[in-house]
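hi! just following up on the protien thing from before. the input was this:
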Amino acid sequence: MHLFTVNSSFLIPHSSFSVAIIGGGPAGLMAAQQLAEAGMAVQLYEAQATVGRKFLVAGHGGFNLSNAEEIAAFSERYGQEAGRFAGLLHHFSPNDLRAWAADLGIETFVGSSGRVFPVAAHKPAAVLRAWLGRLRALGVEINTRHRWLGFVGAAGLRMRNEREGAGQEFTLEPEATVLALGGGSWTKTGSDGAWAPLLQNIGVPVVPFAPANCGAELAWSMFVRDKIGRTPLKNIALRVNDGPAIRGEIMLTAYGVEGTPVYALTPQVRAALAGSGPATLHLNLKPDLSPAALLLKLKQPRGKLSFAEFLKKALHLGAPVPTLLREVRADVATLGPEELARLLVAIPLNVTGLRPLEEAISTAGGVAFEAVDEHLMLRQRPGTYVAGEMLDWEAPTGGYLLQGCFSTGAWVAQAIIGSQLARGSSEQ
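and the predicted 3d structure came back as:
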């Protein structure tokens, strides 16, 4: 890798093939490891003071590294990019990820939901420490507080060292580059999407960022906002309009609803909001009861029980369900069994918007796949590869996001290794 300071001509040569990686998240770190294991000289640049910040944030709500689903079902989690991710997952699968963790001394297990977790002794910080220790042993040079400023010429990268005061600018000329700069949410981790104009400036199409895996906003009345606070609803099913239902647990909040089923339905909600029709979440409070069984319970005599007391006795539906039902249907307490049964399995929640991008767990949008070839190399800039969340894909929580980042990082590493091997063969 050739390193030049601005207005200077000195360089530091490396005897082996040199790669610059911009971004120290899961995709960039995985690419760095595999490239270094192949004997390449790897320098990684991260604008923040430490690497892996979003990796650590991902562990706050339960550190699921991947999922134990079969590849066919797993790849479908990536929506319109399912076919592409089937290939990526075959190259670096959830089993490969577990083997990688084991090689670092990190034992994993499959939870009841199918999610893959490190055992309790291995917190996110411990996993990252083990990983960085391996990278150091492989000779990967990690440069923090170094910001990428754009391209120079056919292969150059403008960089700024922000460790020292105003910062010193310099130019890199690696033989290959991996861009792994993340999406546009959780800016405090460095995933701020500021890279988008730098790629658009050279003609790379970038799909506008949009929140993914985020809460949905509802037009609650002030009474409900004050009454509900943050209250979970467990063992429910949720769907958008007439789409498929997602089972799980949601949280009622002052702004609306959040939780795994809501996050999984974000693409459908976003599409509905962008269209001319309504974006309505239909909440089923009793997905395990057949229509006949539900109706039978609702036909029990109420006697002198209040509506809230009857719901609790007949269906074990306590607070805040009566409040929620009255919010969507003022006369709910007077409904007959048949009409109440229909409401309980399809409570309409009209979505007015999604939570801001900054709050979203992940990002839709990014570098359009039409801008890269099958190796994830930019068509506009040969030798420059893109990995991780900065590509235009999305997936639900549950291990699919991290696995997608790991798999794309491994994919571009293999592509670079393959190109170098092919070059070496042609030179013999």
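Residues 231 and 252 are 5 Å apart (CA to CA).
The radius of gyration is 25 Å.
cheers
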